[in-house]
Design a protein that fits this description.
mainly beta; five-stranded mixed sheet; four-stranded antiparallel sheet; 7% helix; globular
Length: 107
Amino acid sequence: MNGNEDLDERKLLGSGGYAFARITEEEEIKANLGIPQIFLANLGRLSEERFLKYYCNACGREYDGSPVIKFETPNEELGQGVILVEKGEYKCKTCDNIIAFYRKFNK
């Protein structure tokens, strides 16, 4: 990410909650599926510094800062030239509930 890019606060949805984070216009376009909501899973891994707060459906609470970000880089061949480069999840710091999963594939 270029340090000169403007970051806007957006609500990012996940299956186990949501988060408010600062993202670029390019990231917003990438994560938008043609509906008004933006999905955290479509963005991949964001740095913890970009999160303002998150909400966990299991706890029923909002927390300041970033959820826990866990990821691995399997570089697994899935067939037809597709490689799973990275897979990860955003988890609640309190109850370990998964806020969102993400997967990154080669292009």
